[in-house]
Amino acid sequence: MNIANDWKDYEIIDMANGEKLERWGGITLIRPDPQIIWKEKSFPSKWKNANARYVRSRSGGGNWEYNSKIPDKWSIKYKNLVFNIKPMGFKHTGLFPEQAVNWDWMISKIQQENRPIKVLNLFAYTGGATVACLSAGASVCHVDSSKGMVQWAKENVVSSKLQDKPVRYIVDDVVKFVEREIRRENTYDAIIMDPPSYGRGAKGEVWQFEENISNLVNLCTKILSDNPLFFLINSYTTGISSEVLSNILKINLKYKGKISSGEIGLPMENSNLVLPCGIYGRWEK
Questions:
Q1: Which of 71, 126, 142, 145 could form an SS bridge with 152, CB 3.0 to 4.6 Å?
Q2: CATH number for the 97-284 domain, one of 3.40.50.11540, 3.40.50.10300, 3.40.50.150, 3.55.50.30?
Q3: Cβ(279)–Cβ(241) under 8 Å?
Q4: Residue 42: pLDDT band by 50, 70, 90 thresholds?
Q5: Beta partners for residue 20, in sequence order
Q6: Are 251 and 236 in contact (CB under 8 A)?
């Protein structure tokens, strides 16, 4: 497992009973996590100091319960990257800190290449990977079907002082955008995708991971440049093994290179526990 252990502004303080106690900068939150199936808290007294807790409702969804007033949004840093955090519906904060593993990997790949790199970031959400690639010197095309998420990504780019870097923001269905790029004969040196298990595009297009992921990867091979650098798939879809992502890359990418896959996770402070958070598949030059 690759562990995101270089954070200063984020940490898991404790985890038990289906919940994690996290520090995001100066704010402490309690959020549910289905991987946490053990009952014993390591630091019971620390849970009392949480600023807010996300509580699931029996009818689906849930809501935040606040023990003290917190800002509507605040910023945290990862190395030289800055991200804006906001408690959202359905427990999210706008950032998946375990993805720092992939940010570091992408930054290293881009910087070592010592040439202009064009990156396509699909299902790009609030732009963690976009910010990372821009900071490494790449140009980025950021695509997401949610106008709100794209706006949030712009805020993260500005907060990281990267607004003058070459970035293009697209609000669109990912598949339709890639099909248009094929017709335009636009190509990219690196492709990143973080597809949801289920979602809808900008005009209601339905996405299902198991049904659509292999076809999308195949489509994307048609817009890879003649000298591609990397192809990264992230997934949080329950029941999918990282080896599945590796197999999809093996089937669809015929370039010479290395394919790897695995889990990413977050360490719990002052313990030897690690929380598994997702899987990845990578092809690299």
A1: 126
A2: 3.40.50.150
A3: yes
A4: very high
A5: 15, 31
A6: no
The residues pairing with 192 across neighbouring beta strands, listed in sequence order, are 121, 232
Helices (H), the chain: 100-113, 128-135, 147-159, 174-184, 209-220, 242-252
Question: How many CA atoms, within 13 angstroms, populate the side-chain half-sphere of residue 141?
Answer: 19
From the number of C-beta atoms within 10 Å of its C-beta (0-12, 13-18, 19+), residue 268 rates as buried
Are 283 and 28 spatial neighbours (Cβ–Cβ below 8 Å)?
Answer: no
Q: What is the pLDDT of residues 196-228, one digit of tens each?
A: 898 887 778 888 899 999 999 999 999 999 999
Other Cβ atoms less than 10 A from the Cβ of 26: the count is: 11
Quickly state the pLDDT bin for 264 (edges 50, 70, 90): very high
Structure tokens belonging to residue 25: 């900068």
Nearest-angstrom CA–CA distance, 105 and 24: 23
DSSP per position, 123-146: S-TT-HHHHHHHHTT-EEEEEES-
Q: CATH topology for 2-72? A: Immunoglobulin-like (2.60.40)
Side chain identity at residue 238, one-letter code: T
Task: Give the separation between CA 181 and CA 71, rounded to whole angstroms.
Answer: 40
Question: Whole-prediction pTM value?
Answer: 0.95
Give the chain's end-to-end CA distance (angstroms, integer): 21
